[in-house]
Amino acid sequence: MSASRSGHSLAVLVDVDGTLIDSVYQHALAWQRAFADHGVRVPGWVLHRHIGMGGDQLVGAVAGEEVEHRLGERIRASESARYEELIGEVQPLPGSREMILRLTSDGYRVSLASSAKAPNSDTISTCSSCGASWTTRRRPMMSNDPNRPRT
Q1: How far apart are CA 37 and CA 150, in angstroms?
Q2: Suppose 63 and one of 8, 67, 77, 109 were both cysteines; which one would form an S-S bond, judging by CB atoms 3.0 to 4.6 Å apart?
């Protein structure tokens, strides 16, 4: 199959955390420990349901705006450090590498997206070796604007 339509290249944008790599539980645990570091108790199930939400929104969503205002930056910094402690447990999900290889061999331009501030270097290396490129943004890239250029 060729990944072109009317002479245009087709591209695929794939989220990394929870899609290509099995990191959801490590993120939930890192957040739970980060909140605890600052004396805030948030149940694991609540955090699990909010994984995928950017850290800029997660603190207020699970602990309230007062905690966000008072401790948000410190909790986010703690979460980053706590996640680094767990990163060695994160593994690619079965078939993720093969999926990227298949898409690139079929002619698709594959870009990987993450709401993380800086994806782990092992993750970048693994995914990039399959022919994918990285895209990181703090806000969603989707738009309903018909005049927005498509890449």
Answers
A1: 43
A2: 67
> What range defines the domain where residue 76 resides?
24-89
The candidate with the shortest Cα–Cα distance to 136, out of 120, 104, 112, 100, is 112
Q: Are residues 29 and 85 in the same domain?
A: yes
Domain end marker among 50, 68, 89: 89
Of 83, 86, 88, 141, give the one whose Cα is nearest residue 117: 83
User: Is residue 99 a part of any domain in this protein?
Assistant: yes
The pTM score is 0.72
CA dihedral 22, 23, 26, 32 (to 10 degrees): -130
- From first to last of its 151 residues, what are the pLDDT tens digits of the chain? 555 566 677 998 888 888 888 889 999 999 999 999 999 999 999 999 999 888 899 999 999 999 999 999 999 999 999 999 998 888 888 888 889 889 989 999 888 877 665 555 555 555 555 556 555 554 444 333 333 344 3
